[in-house]
Predict the 3D structure of the following.
Amino acid sequence: MNPTSTKPDTDEITRLEKLRTQLSTDIEAMQLKEASLREYEQKLRLLVENASNSQTAQTADQKYVTSGREALDTEWEKYERAHALMEAARRSLTDDRLALKEREDKVMSREQEVARREAWLKGREQQAAKADADAVAAAAAAAAKPKSSFTTAPFLAAKNLLSLGKNQNH
């Protein structure tokens, strides 16, 4: 395997792990904010309910109810702004998660491609090693084959001599 191609992959995987950790931390923080905002919303709803109940009971003190209503409206606007900001941050995190998922998919497909190439290269190396071993075995077999001498195989020697003469004429 080529050592220069693994370093960027490990760097990218490390960077993705850092991003994943950061996203997890951000999500937890957003969930805590969301829970806090829900508690705040509950308090505001109770205030609205109490204000509407106390308004009917306290018609004589209309000024107090009006100022309480204005404060409630102000708090409600604060809640709506905070909720809108939280929703925008949630959408942003969703987009980041989708981008991270796409990147992880690309890294996984790249890893699979590298593994496929490594397997192919290993097969080629095994074929080459087998071919080298076969060539060495053939050379050893040829060297180990006893050469017949003129005295032990005169007809074979004559045949080889005649076949050499034919090959030179053609």
